[in-house]
C-alpha cells in the first residue's frame, strides 16, 4: 500500500479510539516481545517506541483476522499472509477483550456490513431507502453481496 509518511504521522496524532502500552511481537522469526505504545486510530493500529512521538509502524486493519491467543494475548494476521502474526500482550483479560472488540469494529468491512444491515432494516420497516436522499443508493459498495438483490427504489 502506498502512503505519504507525513499524512501517516499526522493521522497517528489524531484522537485514538484506544491506546495503551502493550507487549508486542512482530511477525518475523526471532522477534521478541517489546513494550510499545499502541494506538487505534480509525482503522489503523499504530505502534510507537514508548519514548518517541512518531510511529515506527502501522497496520491497516483490513482483510485481517483478530484472534485471542490466550486470556491476555491477541493476534492480528492478514488473510493473504495468515502465517505472519503480530502478537499483543495485555495487562488483563478485560483489556484484551476490549482491544479485540475495538479492532474488529474498526474495519471498513465491519462498518459496511452494519450500514447494509441497518439500511435493509429501515427499508423493511419504512418502505424507503435511507441512502436515496444522498444519491448513493445505487453505489456498488452499499449493496449486499450477490446473495440478495439491491434494495428497490420503487417501494
Question: How would you summarize the topology of this molecule?
Answer:
Elements: H1 5-12, E1 18-25, E2 34-41, E3 44-49, E4 57-60, E5 64-70, E6 73-78, E7 81-89, H2 93-106, H3 108-126
Antiparallel strand pairs: 1-2, 1-7, 2-3, 3-4, 5-6, 6-7
Task: For this entry, give a set of tags.
155 residues; alpha+beta; 7-stranded antiparallel β-sheet; 7 strands; 26% helix; 31% strand; elongated
How would you sum up this structure in a few lines?
The chain has 155 residues and is α+β, with helices and mostly antiparallel strands. The protein contains three helices and seven strands; from the N terminus they run αβββββββαα.
Question: What does this entry look like structurally?
Answer:
- The protein is built from three helices and seven strands; from the N terminus they run αβββββββαα.
- A seven-stranded antiparallel beta sheet has the order 4-3-2-1-7-6-5, covered by helices on one side.
- The protein starts with a helix and ends in a 29-residue tail after the last helix.
- It has helices at residues 5-12, 93-106, 108-126; strands at 18-25, 34-41, 44-49, 57-60, 64-70, 73-78, 81-89.
- With 155 residues, the protein is α+β, with helices and mostly antiparallel strands.
- A hairpin with a 2-residue loop joins strand 6 (73-78) and strand 7 (81-89).
- It is elongated.
Amino acid at each position: 500500500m502506498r502512503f505519504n509518511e507525513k499524512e501517516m504521522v499526522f493521522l497517528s496524532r489524531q484522537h485514538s479510539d484506544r491506546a495503551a502500552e502493550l507487549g508486542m511481537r512482530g511477525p518475523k522469526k526471532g522477534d521478541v516481545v517489546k513494550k510499545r505504545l499502541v494506538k487505534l486510530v480509525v482503522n489503523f493500529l499504530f505502534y510507537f517506541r514508548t519514548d518517541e512521538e512518531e510511529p515506527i509502524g502501522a497496520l491497516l486493519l483490513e482483510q485481517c483476522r483478530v484472534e485471542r491467543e490466550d486470556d491476555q494475548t491477541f493476534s492480528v494476521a492478514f488473510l493473504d499472509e495468515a502465517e505472519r502474526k503480530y502478537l499483543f500482550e495485555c495487562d488483563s483479560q478485560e483489556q484484551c477483550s476490549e482491544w479485540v472488540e475495538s479492532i474488529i469494529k474498526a474495519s471498513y468491512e465491519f462498518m459496511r456490513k452494519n450500514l447494509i444491515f441497518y439500511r435493509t432494516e429501515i427499508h423493511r420497516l419504512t418502505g424507503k431507502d435511507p441512502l436515496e436522499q444522498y444519491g448513493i443508493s445505487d453505489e456498488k459498495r452499499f449493496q449486499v453481496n450477490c446473495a440478495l438483490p439491491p434494495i428497490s427504489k420503487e417501494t
